[in-house]
C-alpha cells in the first residue's frame, strides 16, 4: 500500500503544481474541454459505454442512453450555455459607510479535487460532477466504483485519452484505493454513495478541513392520497422504481398510501408492471439485473425477513441467483421492524404501507432520517402543501418521480443524512468554487476618520454610523 500511497501522492503533487494553470483558463478554454468530453460520451465511446453497462449488470441500451448519456450531455450543454456568465465577476452594492470603495466577488476554483463515485449510474455520477469541476477550473482525481469494473475501464480509457493526468486522472481499484486517496489534503471532495461511507469521507476530510459535497442516499417515501390519479401514479412509479432495477438513489423506496385506495392501486400497478415487463420479467429486455451476488443476497434476505414476519407479496417475488435476477416485487403488510422498512432498499422491491390520515403519514416520515427525495401523488393542493410544509427532504416531485433530477435549473442533493451540498448546473459550479470577495478602495474612505486615537467627537460619529448607515 505504501507504493500506492506514493503513486497517489505523486499524482496529487503534479495536479497541485498545475492548479493555477488550470484555474486561470478562460471560459473558452474550459468550454473546449467540455466539448471534447461531450464528443467522447455522445459519439466516440457511446457503444463502449452501452456494452460495458450491459456487461456489468445487463443494463438495457435505451436505459443507458436515457439515464447515463443524456444527463451528462445535458449537464455539458447547460454549462457551455451559461459558463461565461457564471465566471463573471459579480458586483455588489457598497454601503454608505464604505464610500470610496467598490465590491464584488468571483468564483475561484477550489483547486485539487477528489471525486468518488458509486456504481449504480457510474457514467452519469462520474462525468456529471466532473463537468462542474471542469467548468469551475479545477484539477480532479477520480475514483469510480469497483463494482462496475467494465464501465470503470472504459471511463479510465476516456479520461486518459482526453486529459493529461496532471489535470484529470482516473484511478481504478478497490475500496483501499479510496482509503489511500482520502489521506491526501484535497481542496474539495465530491462523494456520491451511501450515508455510511459518507461519514468515513467526512471524517477523513475533517483532518485537512477539506470541504465536502456528499451526495448520499436513504429511504425516499412516496405518498399517494385518496384524491390521486392512481393509474397515472402507478405508471410513473412502475418506471421510477424499477428503472435500473430499483438501484437508484431517488427511486421511491416505499409507498405510503391512504388505506381506502390501496387495493385499487395494487391492481393498476400489477397491470402496469405486466405491460412494462410481461408476465415473465426475467425474459424482458427492459430490466437490468442486481449489480452483483452480494447485493442480490442482501435483497433476498430483506424479502425473506419481511415474509417471515407475515408480509404479503402482492406482485412478483421470483428470484434467480445465477443471473442476480429479482422480479419487480411489491409487498404489503410489512412489519415495522422488518429490514425492508428500516434500511435503504436499493433494489426492485417496493413495500406499500397504508395510512389513515395525512398527519399520520407525515409523522411516519418525520420519525426517520430526512430523505433524498419525497414524492406526492395527489390532486389536493391542501394535502400537497401540508406535506411539503411539514416534512424535510432534498427534493420533491408532485405527481411524478425521479424527473426532478433532470432539470439543470434545480439544485440536486440531500439534507443531513441524505447529503450535504448541491450538484447540477450553477449549483455544481458553485460547489467546486470558492466565492472570493474583493473590496477595492478607490479614494480615501470616510471610515478612516474613525481610526485611533479615539476621541469624544469620533465616538459621536461612531454612534451616528451605527444609527444611520
Ligand atoms: P458506497 O458508499 O458503498 O460506495 C461509493 C464509493 O465509495 C465507491 O466508489 C466505493 O469504492 C467507495 N467506498 C466504499 N467503501 C469505502 C470506504 N470504507 N472508504 C472509502 N471509500 C469507500 O455506495 P454504492 O454502493 O456505490 O452506492 C449506493 C449508495 O449510493 C446508496 O446509498 C445510494 O442511495 C447512494 N447514491 C446517492 C446518489 C446521490 O446522488 N445522492 C446517487 C447514487 C447513489
From TrEMBL:
Pfam families from the UniProt entry: Aldedh
InterPro entries: Ald_DH/histidinol_DH, Ald_DH_C, Ald_DH_CS_CYS, Ald_DH_CS_GLU, Ald_DH_N, Aldehyde_DH_dom, Aldehyde_DH_NAD(P)
Gene3D superfamilies the UniProt entry points to: Aldehyde Dehydrogenase, Chain A, domain 1, Aldehyde Dehydrogenase, Chain A, domain 2
CDD domains reported in the protein's UniProt record: ALDH_AlkH-like
Residues of the active site: 215
Alphabetical UniProt keywords: NAD, Oxidoreductase
Claim: Transferase is one of the keywords in the record: no
Coiled coil stretches, renumbered: none
Domain Aldehyde dehydrogenase: 14-438
Keyword NAD listed: yes
Family, as annotated: Belongs to the aldehyde dehydrogenase family.
The protein's name in its UniProt record: Aldehyde dehydrogenase
